[in-house]
Amino acid sequence: MFNLGLDYDDTITRSPEFFRVLTGAVREAGGTSHLVSSRPDTKESRDNTMRGLDAYGIRIDKFGFFRHSLEEMADICPHQELDPDKKWLWQKIEYCAEHDINIFFDDNEKVIELFSEFLPNVMVFKACKFEINAA
Prior knowledge:
Elements (H helix, E strand, L loop, with lengths): L2 E4 L1 H5 L3 H13 L3 E9 L2 H14 L5 E5 L3 H7 L7 H15 L4 E4 L2 H10 L4 E4 L9
Parallel strand pairs: 1-2, 1-4, 2-3, 4-5
Helix pairs in contact: 4-5, 5-6
């Protein structure tokens, strides 16, 4: 089965039309789309995220919000050699490994580095701003 993972802030929000089309194509092909966000796993955060996705017309099948704070991850991350930010971001790697994510989009270079080191079989794309300047 095909599983797509997407970050929200500065990824989906950077190009919502692209991700609306992409998640629709994934659904049509029988795959699932996962939102894997560093937003906290609270009702307020989930509700705000759902309102944003609805406004963009994006349907997500499964959600992975961060359950642990930076301080908690400092103690429980299985890779104590990582810097504090990467320990906290490890939650994305853990979610993607548990849910067999095949392709992942994120804007954060540290997340991309974690995938490269710990989940190298996942195809990762960096969301970045693209501008065309007319001369």
